[in-house]
Amino acid sequence: MAHIRVLEPDLSEQFSSPTLVEGFPGVGLVGKIAADHLIEAFDMVHYGDVHCTGVPHVAVYLAGDSELHSPVRLYGDPERDLLVLQSDIPVRPDAATDIATCLGSWFEEFDVTPIFLSGIPRESTDGEPKLFGVGTNGATGRLEDAGIDVPDEAGLISGPTGALLSHAVESERPSLGLIVESDPRFPDPEAARIVIQRGIEPLTGIDVPVDELVNRATEIRQAKEQLAKQVQQADEESTQAQPLRMYQ
């Protein structure tokens, strides 16, 4: 049965219309790197395990914890009214809709405003990666207030993040999406930094220390390379944005 197993029930009462940052693996592992960094930087509490239909039936163990958990987990920081969705594995495209439906009902129950993250393959290495934002059900006003650019061309978002955004459109739930240019071949900590500093910070009003992310860029890239290879091998499974001109 699809559900979210809450490990810290007392934490639920401490949130008030929280913001959630989603971190499914995708192009450049941008969402994954950003989500992992937020959890570590704020020493976030392991709030719950996601047991939605579509989550692969594997168990993971975490450092310093002998208890087994789902590969998709939720972490919370009530002081900042912040939740983070962490995923250790890619999700199949045919499972993404089930996960979106499962999480969507939970978003509604707790009045969660999700920020979905996606990389779009970067065509040029000149300058910093570009970032732009999209949204649903009136949430786009927050993007304008935060000074986040609108897309300069048409495109689509696929994978689990695309399914979650599609569910938000269909159910008329407010949500935000941040799309950043990123390396399609390797983990991209620099793109994750741009997402955090130019997207998540202004949208949430939370200051996020990123020095560790910058200083450990090489180490992070090496540590995530195996997952990046898995994402590349199952390209249709990964979260990514791509211009619609590819289909025209």
UniProtKB/TrEMBL annotation:
Keywords, in A-Z order: Coiled coil, Proteasome
Coiled coil: 210-240
Domain of life: Archaea
SUPFAM superfamilies, per database record: Cgl1923-like (SSF159659)
Signal peptide limits: none
Pfam families per the UniProt record, alphabetical: PAC2 (PF09754)
Presence of keyword Cell inner membrane: no
Annotated Gene Ontology cellular component terms: proteasome complex
InterPro entries: Proteasome_assmbl_chaperone_2, PSMG2_sf
Keyword DNA-binding tagged: no
PANTHER family: 3-ISOPROPYLMALATE DEHYDRATASE, 3-ISOPROPYLMALATE DEHYDRATASE-RELATED
Protein name per Swiss-Prot or TrEMBL: Proteasome assembly chaperone family protein
Species the sequence originates in: Haloferax namakaokahaiae
